[in-house]
Amino acid sequence: MNRYDVIKKPLRTEKSVADGESTNAYHFEVDLRSNKIQIKEAIENFFDVKVKDVRTLIRKGKRKRVRLKSGKTKDWKKAIITLKEGSTIDLGY
């Protein structure tokens, strides 16, 4: 799995922006099959920074209903990346 398959997109929420400013942590949506080592290598190679810590969690999909049909949204994996001091990622927000 290459770095473009591991990282799907950065997450832009109030909490992620506040974490980026205060604790130098950034939130990303990543592939469900990726592990912490693959995520760390992908972030370091893609953004040219040094990663201190990687935390992951899997968000379960919600049940949705449209008229008479019911379904479920997809499960997705979130990674919280903490960078070493002196490293930053410019995500444009």
Question: Can you describe this structure?
Answer:
With 93 residues, the protein is an alpha+beta fold. It has helices at 3-6, 14-22, 36-47, and strands at residues 7-10, 25-30, 51-59, 63-66, 69-72, 76-83. The strands form 2 sheets. The protein has a 4-stranded antiparallel β-sheet. It is globular. The protein starts with a helix and ends in a 10-residue tail after the last strand. The model has no long low-confidence stretch (mean pLDDT 93).
**Could you give the order of the helices and strands?**
HEHEHEEEE
Structural class, from helix and strand content? Answer: alpha+beta
Strand content: 35-45%
* Helix content class: 25-40%
Q: How far do the termini sit from each other? A: 28 Å
If you average the pLDDT, what whole number results?
A: 93
- Report Rg: 15 Å
Largest sheet: 4 strands, antiparallel
The number of distinct β-strands equals 6
Low-confidence segments: none
Strand order of the largest sheet: 1-2-6-3
Count of separate DSSP helical elements: 3
Shape: globular
